[in-house]
Amino acid sequence: MKKNDEIILSITDYTAEGSGVGKYEGMAVFVPLTAVGDTAKVKILKVKKTYAFGKLMEITEKSNCRTENDCSAFSRCGGCVFRHISYEAELKAKEIKVYETVKRIGGVDLKPQPVMYDKEIRYRNKAQYPVNKDGRVGFYATHSHRVIPCEDCLLQPEVFSLLTRETEKWIRKYNISIYNEEEHKGLLRHIFIRQGEATKEIMLALVINGESLPHAKELISSLKAVAGENLKSVQININTADTNVIMGDKCVTLYGEDYISDILCGVKIRLSALSFYQVNRTMAEKLYEKAAQYGDIHGKTVLDLYCGAGTIGLSLANKAKKVIGVEIIPEAIEDAKFNAGENDIQNAEFYCLDATEFGEKAAKEGMKADVVILDPPRKGLTEELISTVAEKLNPQRVVYVSCDVGTLARDIKIFGEKGYELKEYTPADLFPRTAHVETVAVMSKAGV
Ligand code: SAH
User: Fold this and answer.
1) Alpha helices in 228-329 (DSSP H)
2) I need a surface site. Which of 247, 330, 334, 407 has the fewest CB within 10 A?
């Protein structure tokens, strides 16, 4: 096989990024926008040692899981990868992916529980839109900073599209300068919008390369005209650094409050523009309920490591004896403490520390936890932390919430070597139509 060859390929699987995969002369060929069950004419773009990349030229036999794509930006926008197959087929693909990864990397052949899911459209509560040089709002293309304009993203609440449209009009009317990454010049970088799904409260922040915003009054009044009473906060986020990190550290409120709130598992959560908060609240509730069930947390002392604003721990505090949350970002810990106070939760404590360091300190001080909940970022846990949990803290159960099944599977294997067996796990589709999938797993001492 070589570059520019055209081959006929049967698609049998998906990659972790959502590309279709077929086998040809013993090589795996990755082809975006194909579906399992397709037979397709594919042009080879790049050949590596054991795999190749191809481009879909023509579908010669169409998979029966294909559906009509309903978004004009699909295939150019870097967000969705599964708009061409039914949601059912996507869920199946995600379940298989999680199972195979746990088996291959984790070394455990255990079928997952059925994938948890809810609605597949308009499930997000936060968007960060880049703006192109013509003042059009959209999303980045895959592996690129090219902005693909998008009139109405089907993953976001409808009101987000009304707000971005008003912002586009305001940009044109007042000739607002747009940030240029190459030259590090220009004002407007991103539009950030967040809505509390349960409260409907909306916060909009313009991320700017500067300290102040011209014609802010005019913008605020047109935003109010489309979002009405739900618009609770308009801010600027100052990001003058030459970086591709979206948000800067400082926000200034131009209208309304500094915060909005949402209700998660019955707990009122305060959110700033900089707080980490699951983007799919309905599914986060299901995920946290599953974590509580897996932990069997009634009357137990629960250690919630990587706790963010404390959402998991606070959501189960009324059933547990005590909750101890640990997180590295000081503002998140402040939010967690504030949220505990607001909800009159008195059995929760929060510490701002690296999770591995906290584990060591807790073990030295002889702390005992009945249940340890772990919700690390994509890179997963350190081996030291796994050792501390498994060999020193000795909980009855370890509950692991993960947004990257590859590192989850790696850590399951290490836990296994240290005596903790995987008992059950459930994939949860927090990010329909994208390649991402969340997983919650429970482990306990072998034989227990
Ligand atoms: N459990 C929370 C947050 C999960 S995201 C929720 O469901 O909302 C992972 C969190 O881990 C982030 O808040 C991040 O700031 C935190 N984090 C990253 N590295 C860490 C470390 N080394 N020690 C402790 N927390 C860390």
Assistant:
1) 281-295, 311-316
2) 330
